[in-house]
Write a structure and sequence with these properties.
mainly alpha, 9 helices, 183 residues
Length: 183
């Protein structure tokens, strides 16, 4: 990478890293894992920066790298050894704790997102959190637009069921803001 390409890459990272980090967080469900995932994707992008054909849209390349890096992480044997639990072992005591309803609702939504298969989660993140059109989602994930639509339909059905199980407060919050999952 020459000096001009390095400058372009640094400018891209400075301009888009916040948005990309949010995507990585939504794909992993954890800020630290999201940061690691983004670093992995940016490192892969930096290696290929000089070979990118379309210099006007490196973000699509990075988003594709994010998705594929997340898929690769799930395939690693060490990731299969972790145990997911519904309760955090070091929660503060209930005395004096004032949990806001929005925090509970967000936790329910994030838990429902984490339970989705990785492709469905990626489709939901790209469509509803990134507000990307089907064609762009298909390009990022390397699938047909019909697959994007079918995965969206399946993901929304799963999210509706999960939020219904979580209770009426979670289900109502996802539609109240207008950006919810219930279509």
């Amino acid at each position: 990478m020459n000096a001009d390409e390095e400058r372009q890459f640094r400018e891209f990272v400075a301009a888009r890293s916040r948005s990309l980090l949010h995507t990585a967080y939504l794909l992993t469900g954890d800020w630290e894992q999201g940061r690691d995932l983004l670093q992995t994707a940016l490192a892969a992008t930096a290696r290929r920066w000089s070979k990118l054909r379309d210099r006007e849209q490196p973000e699509i390349y990075v988003r594709r790298a994010l998705y594929h890096a997340q898929v690769d992480r799930f395939r690693l044997l060490s990731w299969g050894r972790e145990t997911v639990t519904d309760t955090v072992p070091d929660q503060p005591s209930a005395q004096g704790t004032d949990w806001a309803e929005t925090v509970v609702q967000r936790q329910d939504i994030m838990a429902a997102l984490r339970r989705l298969p990785k492709r469905q989660r990626a489709v939901v993140v790209l469509r509803y959190f990134e507000d990307r059109p089907d064609a762009e989602i298909a390009t990022i994930l390397g699938v047909a637009q019909g697959t994007v639509r079918s995965q969206t339909h399946k993901a929304l059905a799963s999210l509706r069921a999960a939020l219904a199980e979580a209770g009426p407060s979670a289900a109502s919050s996802s539609t109240a803001s207008g950006r919810g999952f219930v279509a």
